[in-house]
Amino acid sequence: MPLPAPRTILLRAGRSVLYLAGIFLFAAAVNWYQAPATQNIAPIHQLKLASLSGEKNQIVITGGKKTVIYFFAPWCAVCKVSMDALNFFEDSKRVQAIAVGLDYENVEELNPFQTKVNVPVYAGSHELQRRFMVDRFPAVYILNNDGSVAHVIVGYTSRFGIWIRTLL
């Protein structure tokens, strides 16, 4: 069987690139539509969160690093699958990552998530959920060095999806 002509190969490759670009644009449009309107969130310089053992912690956001906040719920199946994406940032010099459990009845429900990731896991509050306008899970907030919201991802995302947004 003879090889296809170079023109045919280029046309097929071009068509494939257009399909991929269309899928990417569709996914970006869905994410934009689902993400909450974050322009009303004032820059966050620190967060006061409780560890799963009850210790109060102060997380500094403006420490020269971008911050990834992964909001999850213990009943969320997608959260369980995608949460390990945070392990990518475990020893990062440019990004700090934390996981915050919301929508739970008892803090013990969050304990199994501590073994899924190598980043700190905290217990969030209803106030924090309202402040960040989290109404779907998982919700990933990426904050700039100045504490402003750079990106919001709602639903499943991969390590690459989070990582690429920390570069933008």
UniProtKB/TrEMBL annotation:
Residue intervals passing through the bilayer: 16-33
Coiled coil: none
PROSITE patterns: THIOREDOXIN_2
Claim: Hydrolase is one of the keywords in the record: no
Domain Thioredoxin, chain residue ranges per copy: 38-168
Alphabetized UniProt keyword annotations: Membrane, Transmembrane, Transmembrane helix
Pfam families reported in the protein's UniProt record: Thioredoxin_8
SUPFAM superfamilies recorded: Thioredoxin-like
Protein name: Alkyl hydroperoxide reductase/ Thiol specific antioxidant/ Mal allergen
Originating organism: Turneriella parva (strain ATCC BAA-1111 / DSM 21527 / NCTC 11395 / H) (Leptospira parva)
